[in-house]
Amino acid sequence: MESVYNPEVGGLSQEAAAATRPEGSHGTGYRFMPVSAMANEFSPVLLPIAGMYPGLTVDQLAAPQPLPTPEKGQWIYHRLVGDALPTGFVALPGTEQLSFCPDSVAVVCTCASLGLELADRQEHDILAIIDRADESVFDATHMDSKSFYALADEFGAVHIRWIDPLPANWRVVGKLLYAQMPFVKKPGAAGGFAEFSDDFEF
Asked: What residues form DSSP beta bridges with 49?
């Protein structure tokens, strides 16, 4: 009597796999689950949000605990536990710069507070990425007059700016790595071909 093909029953190659694979798992019964592998590139990072600017205080900037930076092609888990939690987290593309600055936090800023103007000339949230472990935090002589810093005044208020020289009663509490801006399309901007438009769909 001839055997009839039955996709519910594994074939010759499936019989060997059945001995080592759990029932109903990938590769059994001619079923293969969709899989996705991380690229061997800098992984996305999860940064704690220290607060809002303007109005940020030194204590707020110092409060969040840094999260581990994932290795290339990997990811990390983070569970919210305990009482001393930051105001939230934000996911950003991983970069070599962030991998070298594991004690970085994000500060949500207004465009105007940083002197930035986006293409639509509207107010948007900007993320100021602050490295709290820059060498200038521990020794202000390492400050670069062309760089931007998170500076604390005599009242404990934080200012994100460049300054030269540093006032005697001010101190460095972090260095601005970069300001992360959202994608904003310039009003009326259009190319000569529809397929070059950001909104074009095939």
From this structure: 106
